[in-house]
Amino acid sequence: MDEPATGPALPEPAPGRPAAGQAGPAGTTVVVPPPRAPWPQRAAAWARQNLLASWYHGLLTLVALAILALAGRAVLSWALVRARWDVVTDNLLLLLVGAYPRDQLWRVVAALVLLAVLAVVSGLAWAGPARWRRAQMPVVAAWVVLVPAAMVLVLSVPRQGGAGTGYGLILTLVLAVAGITLSFPLGVLLALGRVSSLPVVRALSIAYIELVRGTPLMVVLFFSMTALPLFLPPSVRPDLVTRAAAGLVLFTAAYVAEAVRGGLQGVPRGQVEAAQALGLTGTQAVLLIILPQALRAVIPALVGQFISLFKDTSLVAVWGLLEFVGVAQSVLSNPSYLGRHVEMYAFVAAVYWVFCYGMSLASRRLERRLGVGER
């Protein structure tokens, strides 16, 4: 009599887990995923699928690799052999903090530590374990309160040399963080005002958004630098840094409002009806149901706008506020460093890339965590 046929051997179940095909709790069938292949086999399979799928895919891959190899060799040869990086190393502290009083650098360190803690807690609240999600609203309130406090801490020292003196990268970070933190809630309020059922609120919101979006950033900065004090009481005279931050906030808020409005229009009408069926008021439905879905859908657009804001901070140099790029240009005016433009601007570009790519990377992680584009 023949022996019964047998299939391939099943993997040994993990301790405490049923084997494949065995009945699990409550009679359910447990499906155990197959074991993963070693990484060399996975890498070879990925290359065959993505780089060598056909003969022209392979040809394009070889051409691209050849161009990258030639470009990489030229860049490394210049960076490691011919470039003279002393223009950066000799002025590194000046590029980072400018003419900030050296005995007051503890203020900068304290502000950076505070922002780093806020960034870490924000990452845990939105992309960390589920128990941290209850801290989302307190974290938002902490950003709105503590960022202006950090800005005041850094800028509450008298600047030396008048308006032509800057704080280098610190000034860039102050303007960018203040602009991002304050323009976001203002933009959300403008977006809610634009879709409001109150005619006056809707008309004012539309007028502001369309006026600012139709004006170049340089004009908005000029208005905030020169005309803003005319609308304030005589006893209130903000300094140039505060005026520049106000201009960036007013400009960015209009674009944030349009991005959020697009997200609000993308929320299905059924969500509002479901919230009403649950007995929620209009405000509760917007804050708890509509707005979270709208913000989740427009994360890429918001991050793109904030990256643009970070790079636009260099425009304040027109009014004598020497931020990172302004200090770099002042260093290049030194006769000892004539002809070192490539090294200096390569360093400036690298620093900008680190911060912009960091924001983009955090955005992608948050999108994956929230399942943007998947559900």
Summary, kept brief:
The protein is an all-alpha fold.
Question: What does this molecule look like?
Answer:
With 375 residues, this protein is an all-alpha fold. It is built from 15 helices and no strands. It has helices at residues 39-50, 55-82, 86-89, 92-97, 105-127, 136-155, 169-194, 199-213, 217-227, 240-266, 269-277, 282-297, 299-312, 324-332, 341-370.
List the helices and strands and how they pair.
Blueprint (H helix, E strand, L loop, with lengths): L38 H12 L4 H28 L3 H4 L2 H6 L7 H23 L8 H20 L13 H26 L4 H15 L3 H11 L12 H27 L2 H9 L4 H16 L1 H14 L11 H9 L8 H30 L5
Structural class: mainly alpha
Query: In angstroms, what is the radius of gyration?
Result: 28 Å
The backbone outline, from C-alpha atoms, is globular
Overall helicity? 55-70%
Q: Low-confidence runs (pLDDT<50, min 5 residues)? A: 1-11
Multimer state: single chain
Please provide the count of β strands.
0
Strand portion, in percent? under 5%
How far apart lie the N and C ends?
56 Å
Series of secondary-structure elements, N-terminal to C-terminal: HHHHHHHHHHHHHHH
Mean of the pLDDT scores?
82
Largest sheet: none
